[in-house]
Design goal:
Number of helices: 3
Helix content: 55-70%
Oligomer: single chain
Length: 96
């Protein structure tokens, strides 16, 4: 029998696990990997920008009628809630 017809019973390489959003491109880190990484970064930055615009409008609406220490406390609470609402989903998506 000719050697080109003989197949090995063992796979040539171990199977590459698939990562969510990156597929198997992370293994060799070619152009596709870097394009996916860049697009994910741009998407998260756009999302952060939209959250920032929303936060600014909420803060402006809450701060227009207040003055003094009460205004600072309310603004700090609103900022913390908005920041937490952005950080928690990003962490959850990165854990998967």
């Amino acid at each position: 029998m000719r050697s080109e017809y003989i197949r090995s019973t063992h796979p040539a390489e171990p199977p590459v696990p698939k990562l969510r959003l990156l597929g198997t491109s992370w293994y060799r880190r070619g152009v596709g990997y870097w394009v996916r990484r860049a697009s994910l970064t741009v998407e998260y930055l756009l999302l952060l920008g939209l959250v920032g615009l929303f936060a600014r409008s909420v803060i402006d609406a809450a701060a227009t009628g207040m003055t003094g220490t009460g205004r600072l406390v309310v603004l700090a609470l609103i900022g913390t809630v908005i920041l937490g609402s952005y950080v928690q989903p990003v962490r959850a998506s990165l854990r998967r």
